[in-house]
Design a protein that fits this description.
This protein is an alpha+beta fold. The protein has helices at residues 8-33, 42-51, 57-78, 103-113, 146-161; strands at 85-87, 100-102, 121-127, 130-136, 167-174, 185-187, 191-193. The protein has 5 helices and 7 strands; from the N terminus they run αααββαββαβββ. Strands 3, 4, 5, 6 and 7 form a 5-stranded mixed sheet that branches. Strands 1-2 form a two-stranded antiparallel ribbon.
């Protein structure tokens, strides 16, 4: 049960280009039928490929642009995006995951869990099988156990949620700027979390 995002941006781009070309061709065709000068001169357009060979720089450039645009659209259509729903663990009698939680909801839940004593604000990112927590403390010298405290709080919340696949929790503590003007970040090694 992995819901993927829809490819709306490439679909809208292709539809917009095709609509614009269709309107332009239709408008020019109507102008030709009415005996007026068409917006899109068909006779001149037909003469361009006849006058230009396949080895001409303009032809090669047009082919390259078309090939790159087609490849990008094809890759966008085939490669799956990040799941919008993360599967939850199934009950022992079912065997397969039947429910899930949205990534946005999971991020909000874990952000609230990371808001422990000594933390001003926290941001959570889900990257594959990792949960990266960046917590900001108001203290210039953070407590030594603050990293472990945040990691334990997030890991406990992940255990409550019960994800189908285990994730790794990484915690970074950012302290206020020192006299030199640089942020100091304490990093913790990756720790397994979830169920």
């Amino acid at each position: 049960m992995i819901r993927r995002p829809r490819r709306t941006v490439p679909a809208v781009l292709v539809a917009t280009v095709l609509l614009a070309v269709s309107v332009l061709v239709t408008w020019s065709s109507v102008q030709v039928l009415l005996g007026r000068q068409p917006l899109l001169p068909f006779s001149d357009l037909a003469a361009v490929p006849a006058a230009t060979g396949l080895g001409a720089p303009l032809t090669v450039a047009a082919l390259a642009v078309t090939a790159v645009a087609g490849s990008v659209l094809l890759i966008a259509a085939v490669v799956p995006g990040a799941p919008t729903v993360v599967a939850l663990a199934a009950s022992p009698e079912d065997g397969a995951p039947t429910s899930g939680v949205t990534r946005r909801s999971l991020v909000r839940t874990l952000t609230r869990a990371a808001d422990v004593d000594g933390i001003d604000a926290a941001t959570v990112r889900l990257t594959g099988r990792r949960v990266v927590v960046t917590a900001r403390t108001p203290y210039r010298t953070a407590r030594a156990d603050l990293v472990a405290h945040v990691r334990d709080a997030v890991t406990d919340r992940l255990a409550d949620v019960g994800l189908a696949r285990p994730v790794t929790v990484v915690v970074r503590i950012a302290q206020p700027r020192r006299a030199a003007g640089d942020d100091v970040a304490l990093r913790t090694p990756a720790v397994g979390g979830g169920t």
